[in-house]
Amino acid sequence: VASGIRRIEACTGAGAVALVQAQTNQLKALGEALKVSPDKLADKLTQVLQQQKDLKKAMSQLEAAASQNNSGDLLSQVKDVNGVRLLATEVTGVPPKALRDLLDQLKADMKSGVIALGVKSGDKVNLIVGVTDDLTAKYKAGELVNYLAEQVGGKGGGRADMAQAGGTQPEHLDKALASVAGWLVR
């Protein structure tokens, strides 16, 4: 490789025929899989990719709607611990990526309080903790999430008002969430 030098690679003879036949067979197989002729593969692929994009968008909207529905159910579990509203619970049916949206919705609905949510996904656990702005001087979400994460075999971190963690011991999630009330009165 040098300045002004170009490299050309080519197939000739039987190698060229074999290459063209392999590509033709591949196009035919793709056409059969997508149920279109090979000359319409590009259009069909564009259509399939657009459908996938639309489905992902619809799924995100459904997850957001499910999170909002869950927030109403979860608010009935709020407890009062020494004058502080506390919600510490496991949520189901909420993907870990939607936890932040659910937390934001709950903080807005509660106005004042501490929220600790956990979700099991396979052999892992995801935690999110939120503290409303009026309580961040007394309670730090980062400290609470680390306290919980230690109990579920993980670690985490974040800001005073919101923190996240993960762990590898989902079987300890219930016990960890039950310990939040004790952490508040320490």
Describe the structure concisely:
The protein has helices at 13-34, 41-75, 99-110, 141-151, 173-178, 180-184, and strands at residues 79-81, 84-90, 114-121, 124-131, 154-158, 162-167. It has 186 residues and is α+β, with helices and mostly antiparallel strands.
Descriptive report:
The chain has helices spanning 13-34, 41-75, 99-110, 141-151, 173-178, 180-184; strands spanning 79-81, 84-90, 114-121, 124-131, 154-158, 162-167. A six-stranded mixed β-sheet has the order 1-2-3-4-6-5, sandwiched between helices. The radius of gyration is 27 Å and the shape is elongated. Helix 2 packs parallel to helix 3. It is 49% helix and 20% strand. With 186 residues, the chain is of the alpha+beta class. The mean pLDDT is 87.
Number of extended strands: 6
Please bin the fraction of helical residues.
40-55%
**Cα shape:** elongated
**Poorly predicted tracts of residues:** none
> Major β-sheet, in short?
6 strands, mixed
Give the strand order of the largest sheet, numbering strands 1, 2, ... along the chain.
Answer: 1-2-3-4-6-5
Helix and strand sequence? HHEEHEEHEEHH
Sequence-ordered SSE layout with sheet pairings:
Layout: H1 13-34, H2 41-75, E1 79-81, E2 84-90, H3 99-110, E3 114-121, E4 124-131, H4 141-151, E5 154-158, E6 162-167, H5 173-178, H6 180-184
Helix pairs in contact: 2-3
